[in-house]
Design a protein that fits this description.
By secondary structure, the chain is mainly alpha-helical. It contains 16 helices and no strands. The radius of gyration is 23 Å and the shape is globular. 19% of the residues are buried.
Length: 264
């Protein structure tokens, strides 16, 4: 939550972009997933008028630790339904553009082409609360954005883990198996697919840590145009005989977009 003290002045775009040029603030912003100024607009949830409306019948809080001694657990489903009304991208965009506060202080150039960023916010919200098709989500980020943080997250890493992995690897002559997955995530996030494939192939020789990396390698081979390698990799993998909706989706996607021939 952000508060303003009048008089309000519109921020200058050049000054705002300096936050992403200075190493200290850039690191902090990237760490919380705000990698470019355009994403600032998508942090909007509601303004003071909306807050006043939804809290109109709520008594003022007088306890610094409300419900501290209460064993009643919150209704997470109700909380999700309430929050989703503010996270759903089309409704959130309408609320953003109709806000009196935004009309007063937000630069016009920051209001353009926001559909993607509000959509990204909704996707991340839904994924964190109810899960998602991780590879479909990864494909969306790689194909439609230049963002790094959500890619790291989908690949089960983050900037903190990566920093530790780099420190650990710096004391070793080769990439330790324990941190290989973090370097795979880094390579994918940087769109260095050749390096990601190299790391995944090294892991394949040791034995994949999880099926997730097998599917990721298959996908990356197709993305790089090495469909035959993807087919050979898939054919060599012993998958369960039972039908799997994720596998069916992936084979269908790779077949439709890259001409991949599923095994069997």
């Amino acid at each position: 939550m952000v508060g303003f003290k009048p008089p309000l002045t519109k921020p200058k775009q050049d000054l705002a972009r300096q936050l992403w040029r200075a190493s200290g603030t850039a690191f902090d912003l990237n760490r919380i997933g705000v990698e470019m100024p355009e994403q600032m607009s998508a942090l909007f949830v509601m303004d003071g008028e909306e807050i006043a409306e939804i809290t109109r019948d709520v008594a003022p809080l007088t306890d610094f630790y409300p419900k501290r001694l209460n064993e009643v657990h919150p209704d997470l489903d109700a909380a999700y339904r309430f929050a989703y009304g503010y996270m759903e991208s089309s409704a959130a965009l309408r609320r953003f553009h109709s806000s009196c506060l935004i009309r007063k202080i937000w630069p016009a150039e920051w209001k353009r082409s926001l559909d993607l960023y509000f959509m990204l916010r909704e996707i991340r919200f839904r994924s964190e609360l109810s899960g998602s098709n991780w590879l479909a989500e990864l494909d969306f980020y790689l194909q439609r954005t230049k963002l790094r943080v959500p890619v790291l997250d989908i690949c089960d890493s983050n900037e903190f883990r990566l920093a530790l992995a780099q420190d650990f690897a710096g004391r070793s002559q080769a990439v330790p198996a324990e941190v290989s997955s973090d370097f795979v995530a880094e390579a994918v996030a940087e769109r260095d697919f050749d390096r990601a494939i190299q790391l995944l192939e090294a892991e394949r020789e040791r034995g994949f840590q999880s099926d997730k990396h097998f599917f990721l390698l298959t996908y990356l081979y197709c993305l790089k145009g090495s469909v035959e390698k993807a087919e050979a990799l898939a054919a060599a993998k012993a998958l369960p005989r039972e039908r799997d909706s994720f596998v069916d989706w992936l084979w269908g996607k790779l077949q439709a977009e890259y001409g991949f021939r599923p095994p069997g």
